[in-house]
Predict the structure.
Amino acid sequence: MNTISYFEIQSAHPEAAVNFYREIFGWRFTKDEDIPIPYWRIETDGIRGGLLQRPAPTPPQECGTNAYVCSVEVVDIDTLADKIELLGGQVALPKFAVPGVCWHAYFVDPDGNTFGLFQPDPEAR
């Protein structure tokens, strides 16, 4: 109880978002036809989630993020950063050290959603 156990990603172009996240993280997506909006269940090697048709407009770019931001633990942040840009994502905040803990960076997916990557590294400085 009282722990985050499910996440959702909203998208104006859900099929494209499914392809983006499948390519970046290898997540498995299953479209759920029993839900009255376009909705995909997401299976990862950890927390489960969903991806849905965006129900309302996003805030203007200058407003920043109006949501929780999820960060994904990865083995090689640099390789995935390059892949994210190749697949149409953008760097929102380049890789930085959380001293003695990890490397962290923030990105924006092709639909404007912010997400983070972190690579554990006790030597990060």
Remarks:
- The longest strand covers residues 90-98.
- The chain is about 20% helix and 40% strand.
